[in-house]
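Hi there. Long-time user, first ticket. I'm pasting a complex I've been working with (about 739 residues overall). I'd like to know whether the download I got is complete or cut off, because the file seemed smaller than I expected. Thanks.
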Amino acid sequence: MSATVLVIGGGIAGFAAAATAKEAGADVSIALGRAGATFLSPGVLDFAQRGDASPLTQIEKSVFSLLDGYVIEPTELLTIAGTSRTADGRDETLLSVSALQEDGAVAVIGRTASFDSRYLAKAFSATTKRSFVALACDAIQRYADERHWNDAELASRFDEEERLAWLARILGEGIQRSTTKIAGVLLPNILGTKPGVAARLSAMMKLPCGEVVGTSNTPGFRFLEARDRALARAAIPVRRGDVEGIDFSSSGRVRVTFADHVADVSRVVVATGGIVGDGLRYVPSEIESAGALPLSSRATFEPSFRTNAPLPIIAPGIADRPSSLFGEPAETFRLSLTAKPSPFLRAGFDRRALPRGILVAGAAAGEGTTWLEAFRSGCAQGSNALI
Amino acid sequence: MREAETNARRRYRARYVVNATGAWGPLTAAFGGIHSKAARIRPGKGIHVVYDRRLSNYAIVADSIDGRRVFLEPWQNVSIIGTTDDDYFGNLDDVTATSEEVRYLVQGIARVFPSIRTARAIGTYAGVRPTIYDYGPDEDSLSREHLIVDHAVDGAEGVFSMLGGKLASYRLFSQEMSDRLARDLCPGVACTTHEIPLPGGEKIIDPFRLAGEIETTPIAARRLVFRHGTRANDIGVIAREESFANTIVCPCEPVTEAEIRYVVRNEGATSVADVSRRTRLGLGACGGMRCTVRCAQIVAEERELSPRESIAQAKEFFEQQARTRLPVIGTVQARQEVLHFEQMHSLFGTRT
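Hi, the file is complete. Here it is re-exported in full:
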């Protein structure tokens, strides 16, 4: 009898674990939370620069190939802050400066609440080595009311072929009028809520076209679409709803309870995210704690689901600091844009002390603060599920 | 004097000098060679906790554990609870709320409004009252009166200090000070303060008409009129005439691009923090996630600052605001805070 594996969590780690286990021959299903449950849906978890992008293994390559719209390669991206940053990979829709031809300027196009082509063209020219020009700044809104839409709403329009062709025509005219040689086109986060829109636009324009790194949740929508397509491709069945409990039996089987059904499996991979992904919760919760409302160093963690066996959690930085009464106050924690990631993020299940039958992947294990790390963690735990 | 913006030092000569520097009053007097005891105050720290949206349509008063009156009040688009009153012996230039002050207020309010414990706190602010000096009484029993000190007795003819007072009485206090100066400068002239509307208060503006004119939402227009009165019309001109200036930069409040440009051009705002104080930009539920970077760019554009200065301004404001949230973040908000920082690391490329 082949191993039955249930992966809990539909982020990048959960997807990678499910696909890897499937590839290795397990009978796999995946539990997805409610809409917006994954850390990737706001587009926050990304390919931040770690500079350690060692080549993918054979199995990682094969799992990665299921996902539409991602590339893994060192790259330079442009952000709405008016600067560039490096990354170990990217959502293919984001414009890679490194992939552009040496000569020619980058055309910056579009005007939304957070994206001003004129300003950004000047800023990128000052902060990077390339030159940038702003073209007809209101090219992307076709109708007056679209000026009040957010990027993701606008992006859904460009999923339509006719609308994309309209954009290509407008861009073509703008570029033709420009006296500068154009090497690529940079737009706000509007190039589709599904993967592949930027590639189609680039083909129409015969020029690399792509998005800026912004705060919009458009890249998150693209991830959800890519994941769902990949799960369908790999024929991995999906369970919907939150997990209420995980019970371990002496026979080695694991029972996972959902609101409307129970799954009985031989292995469960927890990829529920850490603190931010809602896989872990601080205790005591705000609601139950009599007077201790603000967070303090005395805060500890518990899984966000019920279990019949202890699942120890390690949280360097917070729980390890002994203190009296309410503990060290939250205001002593350093949240800085220049220092290391905050200790809030670093809690995770302690792999060394888990009962048989359960594995943890990604942020739930305190690893996976970037896309690539989460992916690799997922692949590793997915293959461990068969051992 | 040193100009904060240019760092230039200048000397000014005047017949009269009014020291209206609040809790810094004694320090300012000391700069003029006046003994700080001649302009003595008893600094009293007070904090407010800010909650997302209006939790009640009424102000609610409660007794704190030590019998003081504390309140929950709908204010602007948010709710605030306050306030503490404690003698302050710290650095006046770095006053922040602490989580123990927050616990004290929440405990008091929760007695009559239990759901305050589950409401979403989005920030704090702290200040120091320039209370008139008295040795002995507890903080709450101190007088909230105001006082004008003529430093002629200290050998400084023409120097006055304004001590004590509250926001609620500031106009009266200024009138008394002006009357005192007018007695010497223009004797016999009657005070007209009570007949002159405050700037922007000249007449009532219809926000819905304004919303139509500048093609923005009625909510944005109402907030604009609330903040600026008749000056909202001048902002409307920018919104209509400059390309995309009616775009909403801060969706929480909301604040349009035109308003940011207006306060930089006309009200002396030089940074994101200044714009925020004038417009409430970045003080809503999202903690400046969506508006900080763009606002810094508009400020940079208006003031001809470099892109790097714009980025530095955005980072500074964002970190500063996060600092005001830390004493109040509960276990759920802590998660939100991490999200904020991950997103900002991604934009600035600062992840280590």
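A couple of notes from our side: Chain B touches chain A through 61 residues (CB under 8 Å). The longest helix of chain B spans residues 307-325.
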